[in-house]
Batch of 4 targets.
Target 1
Amino acid sequence: MKAQAVRLHGAGDLRLDTFELPEIGDDEILVKVISDSVCMSTYKCAILGTEHKRVHPDVAEHPAIMGHEFAGIIEKVGKNHQDKFKPGMRFAQQPALNYKGTMWSPGYSYEFFGGDATYCIIPAEVMELNCLMEYKGKAFFEASLAEPMSCCIGAFHACYHTKMGDYHHEMGIKEGGSLALLAGVGPMGLGALAYALCCDRRPGNIVVTDINDERLQRAHRLFDHKAKEAGIRLDIVNTKDLPDAAATLKEINGGKGFDDVFCFAPVGAVLELSSAILGRDGCLNFFAGPTDKQFSAKMNFYDVHYNSTHVMGTTGGNTDDLIESLKLTEAGRLDPAVMVTHIGGLDCAAETTLNLPKIPGGKKLIYTHIHMPLTAIDDFRSKAAEDARFGVLADLCEANHGLWSAEAEEYLLKNWD
């Protein structure tokens, strides 16, 4: 059958291709992709090409479909999986396969498997690893965003703490402790904040920093009331002009260092600030993946030795993390829409990916069966004069505190080409 997809042909070479999908085998599943959210990791893959660890060396001959944060509908099931999966089922998937020691993943490594596509084929290893699951939620975008949210959840679970004289690692952020999210008002930082306010192992207080006033104000608008409802103190701070940011953040934290610190930007100054505000037994999670293989920054190793501070990094979540994200979302405790600021069709996905660092805001959400320029949710109202459909989308988002919603998605899918 014919499919369209944004595919990687080489470093910086993304193309919207029309091509023939082969017939599925007994151990494969054909799916119709509905939504895919664009990840900074996809940008890194696109600009690096075969220099990226997940991209196969013959990508020029066998281009890889981009996008790994996707959801949709099962169309056809090979006979080996017909007892569990049926046509018409909605699906979510965990792309962090780690299959038999390889780094292959949808959105990086497969010729016929990825999210920036109208249709794709899910290979046998995905079902073997239980990384394909039925999705029973309302909106496809929530299933797409379950993947980036699972990265945040996995990062929280991977943090650890110790006690003096005891070498046992207690996993997870410190319950009732202090949490700092530095450069934390981008999409992943806001996802982490949303999870911190609703998870079962919650901090007692949270400090979020950035240097962009507009994004900081958006974080205030979205989370101040949620923090009060959760009984968690939340401080959102612009560190741009602070003469001593570390001292200020510690002062906010009662004069002490933080139990858990997440660094969401691969910037030396942010990472060094992260190190400087660690308290005793403080855990620093370097969440942001750099493209520079020689990236480094200073860390206080006196504190590593005498105050048991430690650093670790996570990339991706696992299937349990994704299931936790879906369950929290379905229960209404977690709203991944806080990540999303832009909506577009498959026709804008390549340009969006290649220019991702230059486009302000949070997650860019792609609907693969529509044609629509990438459009900020905040711009819907101003576009209503030229296209009345944007006015309806504006009404629906404004009714949801300015956020994308299941109702907005339903209207989009019914009314766009």
Target 2
Amino acid sequence: MKAFLLRPTDPISLSFFRIIFGACLLWEIIYLFRIDFIEGYITNPQVHFNYDFAPFAQPLPQPALSLILLGLLTSSILLVIGKFVKQAAWFTFISFSYILLIDKAYYNNHLYLICLFAFFFAITSSSQSISVEKMTPKKVPYWQLLLFQLQLGIVYFYGGIAKINSDWLIQFEPVKTILNQRASDSMFSSTLQSDGAVYFISYGGLLFDLVIFFLLMYRPTRKIALIGAVIFNGMNAWLFDDINIFPFMMLGALVLFIEPEKIRNFVTKKLPFIKLAPPEQTIDPTKNLTFQLLGIYFILQLLLPLRHFLFQGNTEWTGKAQYFSWRMKIQTRETEKMEFSVLNYDKKEIVNVDLRSFGLNDDQIRLLSMHPETGVKLAKEIRRTAELKGMKNIEVKANVIVSFNGRTPQSLYKDVDLSNVEERIFKPRSYVTRLTE
């Protein structure tokens, strides 16, 4: 096994993906500048829904946050040109992870994947080919390429596992809802709303996710798998308008499965302005500790998406154990009502809460109907604010009515004082209603 992991490999695949990854990161950071992310999403809100395991992820002053965003912009450019790659990757991993952990409202699977890929680039030698660095290129051990391949396999496979549920397989939700929404502004509306389209995307998408990694890794099926992956990710880019760079980064990642010699031949013949020196056979040694730590990393990656089995209830409905699990595009929600109120028993009055008074943005408000634990945190902040105003004998309740995957709208929270609920990592969410099947 060790000989397999250490076999010398042409680094050109890693270098190509480094360029694509850097370009996608650059696109993402420019987008964050365009939407004024620092002010509108970090410094303005008075409440942030951070993670229990990361209480340290608190917003820094705005000038420091702006410097971090500028640093990420610079790092993305360095990754593209291949200069100070490891330093840029470490900065990206640490800074982007910090930003992602500030608030659950900003979690997205592709942002999580950016953090993981940045970490991989920090510990591998992707600048050994196609780089402005002046060096004698060397081959890299195969495990450096395998890291990326395995991570992509986990993303696809667990994305498929998450689809094995009655909503997806029997009710064809959220596929029906998504296609109906897309059909409203498409010339192919009748086709998108047909049973054939629903069956194809539901069962075809499930099958694709479950088998694509294995087909990509097996050379005889690789060509057809690459074609299928291009079509699949292209359809995702067309169907979904809220996944930004994700399908393009996944398309770019396909280069990791193409034989390095084919990439080198293509560059030599089609891109002669890129001067490629053949890499030397020698590779840098790898410590056993590296393999041990990476083994632990992948064990965690395999176990984290399964932790929802520890809890009762529909994971998508309760939000329990949903993050960092590659559960992608398997639910839709329509919020019919969103009310938080303070019951003041001393004055026998009900005071409705203006959520905007806490500086909450649209993403945070939307999260209140998707992840109930955020409602608990908001309720505690509402109680604190009310007590500062002299209210004592009070309760904080939420009336949030949601239609989940096409079901009849129902209440998300039970009739309880959310400000007294204790939310813990291994504690089930008994304050959430049972999902109507």
Target 3
Amino acid sequence: MPKASNAALLRLHATDNVLVATGPVVPGPAPVMEGGSLEVLAQVTLGHKLAARDIRAGEKIVKYGVPIGSATQDIEAGAHVHVHNMQSDYTPTHVLDATAGGAG
């Protein structure tokens, strides 16, 4: 039986440049499942992404070992990675605006 872990962050694939929160995470050092820790810069909740390392504007965001979008600005290691600093390369912006309650 696998040993239980108190890791707050999980890398889903070895090539990912983001980590996923396994529950609520607050700013400060947070343990990473495969070892080590990451200095978290912003509070996030279950399932949200944090930059595992500095990510440059225009660089692909990689999760599950595949690109899921692109950084719209430089993202510091430990920062929340979400629609405010990345864009989907697959979902039109008007769809994102509509799901966020925007006018479209």
Target 4
Amino acid sequence: MNTLKKFIHYYGPYKTVFFIDLLCAAIISLVDLAYPQILRSATKTLFTQDKAIILQALPWIAIGLFMMYVIQSFCKYYVSCQGHIMGAKMERDMRQELFEHYEELSFSYYSQNNSGQMMSKLVSDLFDISEFAHHGPENLFISLVKIVGSFIFLFLINKKLALPLTNCPSLRRKLEDEGAIFHSNSDTEVLMHLIRRSMQRTFMENRKKIGDVNASLQDTLSGIRVVQSFTNEEIEKEKFQKSNHAFLVSKKDNYRCMGEFMSSNLFFQGMMYLVTLVYGGYLIANNEMSAADLAMYALYIGIFISPIQILVELMEMMQKGLSGFRRFLDVVETEPEIVNASDAEPLQNVKG
């Protein structure tokens, strides 16, 4: 939590862009939620009227939907353009701060740390941080709006069908078998918790391995004259192959975790569609639900499921960004061993 507070500090100069970005994200989500409800209302009211009334209303509906999607498109442009620019500016600020702090550190720091690792923190780590800075809050906000909004509409359409969808026993049992900790009845929250816990270690390991690759490359290339003079090319190739393979192993661990969670998420989606179709058909047979409402249900299930996929991908992005930010803090919070005295004055008029 302390790391997250320090990360939020870097949003300070760009608060206006950040809040406009969230507003645009909310509008994008609300437009997606509005269409199925508009279709449901039209199906139950307008489309049961005479031909003349329907044809008279259709142009106005078309104009309204056209304007709605034009606004959504402008919001998407702002999010995609200005949001990314905000992330790039934050990346620039962090990189400048990190470089200036490197300049202040004592010789002992450079003796204890490889320059390849320092380059990795300055370049690749900060890129992932900037991606999370932009996509993290935006995707989280969009997902929450869609999940909460779609569930509200699901309950409004039919409470009996909505209740089974609030809990998926098969997924919960699977997660319990893997040792997940449950703090609420939300399967989405459980899935998020399990992903965060599993990915945290592997992404930090990735940072170290790519740093080792950079370090090996930097050592070899900076001393290439010596290497070639003593015909040590094969030795350097073996050293680089070892660090390169270690990075591959750490990436494999990440992809295995993501494969497990992506497949679990897909199975969870399938179970929701299964429950909707089977239990919805049962309610229709008992005259407790109309076929039109079941069709609307399927649309809202799709809107509800898509943010879950976004949240799963967001956890990967968040762990990449925060692991890089922790490495960033390790440097900027390192105090130089030699500092100016409190009463130091600049040296002027130096001669000789």
